[in-house]
Write a structure and sequence with these properties.
InterPro entries: DUF3150. This is DUF3150 domain-containing protein. It comes from Aquipseudomonas alcaligenes (Pseudomonas alcaligenes). With about 375 residues, the protein is α+β, with helices and mostly antiparallel strands. It has 13 helices and 9 strands. A hairpin with a 2-residue loop joins β5 and β6. The protein starts with a helix and ends in a 40-residue tail after the last helix.
Length: about 375
Amino acid sequence: MSMQANEIKILDQILLVDLSGIHLWTARKKLKPEMLEGKIPPATLASLGSMRVIDPEKLKPFEKIKRQATKVVEECGVKFLGGYAISQDKIQDVVDSLEALKTQFYDLKNNFLPNYDRWVTEWIEKGWEKQEWRDAIRTSVTPKGVVDAGMQFGYAACRVAPDGDKKLAGTLGGQVRGLADQLYAETAETAERLLETGLATRGHVTQTTLNTVRKINAKLRGLMFLSSDVKALSDHIDATLAALPTSGVVNGTQYNAVVTLVSSLSEEESIKRLIKHLNQAAGQVVQLEVEEPEAPAQPEPEQNVSPLDWSPVEVGASSAQAPQAEPEEEIEDSSDEEAEAVLATLFQFRQAPEAAPEPVTDEVPADAATEAEIAPEPLPQAAGFWF
């Protein structure tokens, strides 16, 4: 199966960065039984079946630089083909950072090698309990030339393109399709580490924690071209972060919003569920925007007449129990009848008191209901009531 057009488009937007050229010297030698002489050396000298031949503190700066190099590519890239897929928009920043670390690495190395023999001697003469241990270190010392060759900082950046063979290209296509899932897995790993710090029970969140969430989102935003789902997720995180202060401690409902967000990002499956809900919500909004219902016909505005000037109007009974009355004239527009029914409910019809003056325009029908005949509940619907 050949690669799909969208998979080729993704490859066109990424470069593969390989850090396998970074090599450190471990300064460890295999621990032999005759070196022990019946007593186990301290952990500072030996552990896990190996023995240190130099103070490990001298090597920690190199280990730190390697971790920083890994961090540079992990913050904006995703694991791919043994290296890291980096957006072409970010590759120059990545290369600049790696070059700076490379310079630091070789500066440290240029200081380490001239002092190597002296530091090895200091380690041997550290005052170990047994002479056999000192002798074991002395006989296990690595030559300086070997150390020099073993300490290197190298990396490579290259484009990846499908082969002309469809079967081979199909295997690459499968790796490309898995990039989005790999991105979710790495996002979940970072969010899980945040939860492990006690975020969900702390009651507040600091800007340091929020900066980690911001870095998660920056990585997602830089790789949005992998899938439209990645963009939906990044937009959601953006909206949550935008509502939070950029300084000080966050607590209360805002803290709860952060915990909810981080929790939803802490597992790959929960990320996919969140994306599904976001897409469903977006689909509903689009449907509402496209399929707007027709506006209902507006009834003609009624004249603003004072209740005292209203003439008696006969309202059709709504139930069999209400007295029936023949209307004086046929009503042509049913909307007027509905409007009068609404007014009757709003103003709670009451029969005009006996002392009220008779209206000039019409007479009350002889068969109109009296006040004693009106039931208090439900509201009367019979004819012959004053508005």
